């Protein structure tokens, strides 16, 4: 293996895995840090470890990330990639900055880059400020995120609040000059004792140049976009990529269910669109809290009764920001979110026993719950449904999943995903 990736949530892991595969690297995704030795095909070039560390306590995120790094080092990886969301989902206390510091210390390194951009999905950085489409991050829907509200758009300010060093910038004008200029700027900033460097990014060409320029860095950090350039340092041909696409393709057509826990603006649009074409069940949070077992059976029966229609049934906890605020004020943020996660866990365990083998899931936290409930050890990466969202197939059982980050895909994503089988 050559590249080891540590992703801070499950959808982020499949996101970057798909970009690596599509750019020529044979890749496998693991859903946890292996506790026992596992056999990985010698042709695999990249391993992505999925953590659930984006929104947990800082000390837990640091501990698990360092453990993942140590395991990847033992597998012989020569470069390491800390993958976080393209909207830099974090708070002033972490978890991105503390994890970067811990990984640098573990590698005995003192310098890395920060590149969350994903232009194809409208995430760009200009003069160190992160944009979502044509809006600053702090003016986008992320300002109302229920767990990590993003009220600051300057990546330099964000990382310096979270972490322990000084942050520099390579601006757009230098990025336009290409690999050599970027490398020269990296050298200069490292000599000036900067610990982190934000990379302006407006195009995929910038990401390719960045990837080449950071070839010799032990640790790189960013969203999935930087993988476009990093992968080109390792990829030998597109053969492994095509093999991985075949391995990860959904097999057969038994029972399919859609589960949505994200409350992002795009997922709200996707759920509303899906309601017009397919059966959709909106969860009652009070029942999730007060009678989870009995209520779970009600939803199971509803799901089974809607299996014979053109599109699979959707069970949704997605709601708009106003209703979300009401729920959180009534039940509390932690109590309500934990109740929904527990409900989805019990629902998925029951559905698998009834033969459901395809799961389309919206939301990073929800995807983590689903994968853990299904006891999936890892994935083969399959065809891309939308940028950053591939079909994946379990390496240890006959289950296929599409794990969608909240803001990814267009309004018809849930329908489009079912066109692949």
Short description:
The protein is an alpha/beta fold and 421 residues long.
Characterization of the model:
- With 421 residues, the chain is an alpha/beta fold.
- Helix content is 41%, strand content 20%.
- It has 16 helices and 18 strands.
- It has helices at 10-22, 58-74, 96-107, 155-162, 172-175, 179-191, 204-213, 226-231, 239-247, 265-275, 285-290, 292-305, 321-331, 333-353, 364-374, 413-417, and strands at residues 3-7, 27-30, 46-50, 79-83, 112-115, 123-126, 129-132, 135-136, 167-170, 196-199, 219-222, 255-260, 280-282, 314-316, 356-362, 378-386, 389-394, 400-404.
- The chain has a 15-stranded mixed β-sheet with strand order 9-10-5-11-4-1-3-2-16-17-18-15-12-14-13, with helices on both faces.
- A hairpin with a 2-residue loop joins strand 6 and strand 7.
- Helix 12 (292-305) packs across helix 14.
- The longest helix has 21 residues, at 333-353.
- The chain is globular.
- It starts with a strand and ends with a helix.
């Amino acid at each position: 293996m050559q590249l080891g990736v540590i992703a801070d949530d499950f959808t982020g892991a499949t996101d970057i895995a798909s970009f690596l595969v599509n750019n020529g690297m044979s890749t496998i995704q693991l859903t946890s840090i292996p506790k026992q030795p596992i056999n990985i095909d010698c042709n695999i070039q990249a391993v992505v470890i999925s953590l659930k560390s984006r929104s947990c306590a800082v000390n837990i995120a640091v501990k698990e990330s360092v453990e993942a790094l140590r395991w990847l080092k033992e597998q012989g990886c020569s470069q390491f990639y800390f993958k976080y969301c393209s909207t830099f989902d974090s708070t002033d206390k972490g978890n991105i900055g503390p994890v970067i510091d811990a990984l640098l210390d573990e590698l005995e390194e003192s310098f890395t880059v920060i590149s969350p951009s994903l232009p194809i999905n409208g995430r760009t950085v200009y003069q160190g400020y992160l944009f979502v489409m044509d809006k600053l991050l702090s003016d986008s829907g992320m300002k109302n995120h229920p767990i990590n509200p993003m009220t600051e758009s300057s990546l330099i300010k964000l990382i310096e609040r979270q972490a322990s060093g000084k942050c520099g910038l390579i601006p757009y004008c230098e990025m336009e000059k290409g690999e050599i200029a970027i490398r020269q700027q990296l050298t200069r900033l490292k000599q000036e004792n900067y610990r982190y460097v934000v990379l302006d990014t407006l195009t995929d060409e910038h990401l390719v140049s960045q990837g080449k320029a950071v070839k010799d860095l032990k640790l790189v950090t960013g969203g999935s976009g930087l993988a476009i350039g990093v992968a080109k340092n390792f990829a030998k041909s597109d053969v492994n990529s095509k093999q991985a696409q075949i391995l990860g393709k959904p097999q057969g057509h038994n029972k399919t269910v859609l589960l949505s826990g994200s409350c992002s603006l795009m997922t709200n649009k996707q759920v509303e669109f899906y309601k017009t074409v397919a059966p959709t069940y909106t969860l009652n949070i009070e029942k999730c809290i007060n009678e989870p077992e009995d209520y779970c059976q009600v939803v199971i029966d509803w799901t089974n009764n809607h299996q014979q229609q053109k599109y699979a049934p959707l069970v949704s906890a997605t709601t708009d920001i106003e209703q979300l605020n009401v729920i959180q004020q009534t039940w509390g943020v932690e109590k309500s979110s934990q109740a929904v996660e527990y409900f989805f866990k019990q629902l998925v365990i029951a559905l698998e026993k009834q033969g459901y083998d395809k799961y389309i899931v919206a939301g990073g936290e929800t995807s983590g719950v689903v994968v853990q409930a299904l006891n999936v050890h890892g994935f083969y990466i399959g065809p891309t449904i939308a940028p950053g969202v591939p079909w994946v197939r379990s390496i240890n059982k006959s289950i296929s999943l599409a794990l969608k980050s909240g803001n990814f895909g267009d309004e018809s994503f849930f329908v489009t995903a079912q066109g692949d089988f």
